[in-house]
Amino acid sequence: MSRAEVHIVGAGMHAFGRHGDISGMDMGEHALRAALADAGLGWESVDAAVGGSNVSGKPDSLVNRLGLTGIPFVTVKNGCATGGVALATATDMIRSGRAEIVAVVGFDKHERGAFGSDPAAYGLGPWYARSGMMVTTQYFAMKTRRYFAEHGLDESLLGAVAERAFANGAVHPMAWRRKPLSEAEILSAAPVNSPLTQYMFCSPGEGGVALILASGERAHDLCDTPVRLAAAEVRTRRFGSFEVFSPWLAPLPVHSPSIDAAAAAFAVAGVGPADVDVAQVQDTDSGSEVIHLAETGLCGHGEQDELIRSGGTDVDGRTPVNTDGGCLANGEPIGASGLRQVHEVVRQLQGRAEGRQVPGNPEVGFTHVYGAPGLSACTVLTV
């Protein structure tokens, strides 16, 4: 078996939600120790580590708690795509031959309320903040409304997306939002930015996730059902895409980092969207999930209504999506969110999902995460 192959042999998670005095670093440590235990390894067996956090400290500080073994520990920060970028970085460490066992961890503990950002950090002037567009709910609402108009989608579909998310979250022990809501309740909830209502957005939250990666030479010695990380690809925006904190809009956007990252991941893995048995796509809001389903190739543009309304994205549908409730039910601790997606898909492929298990022994999984200011990371996982 080639050393260039990368497998996930351990997965651990601290439940998402609100956790009082427990710090983000505490949640990261909890997740990392759980992942090591899942892999049957101690910290001394780890050759390198990669971590991500947006507001809750430097992940490499975890060596103070786990052991001062002198390993390389890389910290990344790429907005909501932080977890995906951390995973891709760890994958490269193994494929390059620099390490055989790599730990990946992400965590965050956000305050209540909407995410706040400094325009200067994104190369923008204060005028952009005064326009109101640093409030991301406005951006997502504008993009959703335009997309739905272009592709003839009814805005009630946004309620159906959130209804499925909360139904999946209600039976998942790691999810934050555990109360099912009907489409009617979601559509009639308090408006935030039209057409998106209160329950169509995820909330900043708290949580931690960790994964243990191993080279192909080691994986089957460590895990009964290692999950092959067939691809982990990252792409940034190109000319013509309309992204978070992008102060302009081309007349006919045809590109997005999500399109490019997904296409690259499928090409590297040697499979296509039709082969996917279980998927996670970024659902910062209901509209984003609808858009990302098509941008990643899981369906065609304008086909989302039929796919979702027919139950195609349900756990027992043809393409189960966000089986743990996604960001809508779990909230979004930025450093951990992308890794949560992979954690869920790994457990689905191993047949040990903590919520609703996809039937029929799924063999191919896909994850997609998107972050500001226009960055996407996608993975393909197989057993």
UniProtKB/TrEMBL annotation:
<dbReference type="InterPro" id="IPR016039">
    <property type="entry name" value="Thiolase-like"/>
</dbReference>
<dbReference type="InterPro" id="IPR020616">
    <property type="entry name" value="Thiolase_N"/>
</dbReference>
<feature type="domain" description="Thiolase N-terminal">
    <location>
        <begin position="6"/>
        <end position="109"/>
    </location>
</feature>
<dbReference type="Pfam" id="PF22691">
    <property type="entry name" value="Thiolase_C_1"/>
</dbReference>
<dbReference type="GO" id="GO:0016747">
    <property type="term" value="F:acyltransferase activity, transferring groups other than amino-acyl groups"/>
</dbReference>
<dbReference type="InterPro" id="IPR002155">
    <property type="entry name" value="Thiolase"/>
</dbReference>
<keyword id="KW-0808">Transferase</keyword>
<feature type="domain" description="Thiolase C-terminal">
    <location>
        <begin position="259"/>
        <end position="380"/>
    </location>
</feature>
<dbReference type="InterPro" id="IPR055140">
    <property type="entry name" value="Thiolase_C_2"/>
</dbReference>
<dbReference type="Pfam" id="PF00108">
    <property type="entry name" value="Thiolase_N"/>
</dbReference>
<protein>
    <submittedName>
        <fullName>Acetyl-CoA acetyltransferase</fullName>
    </submittedName>
</protein>
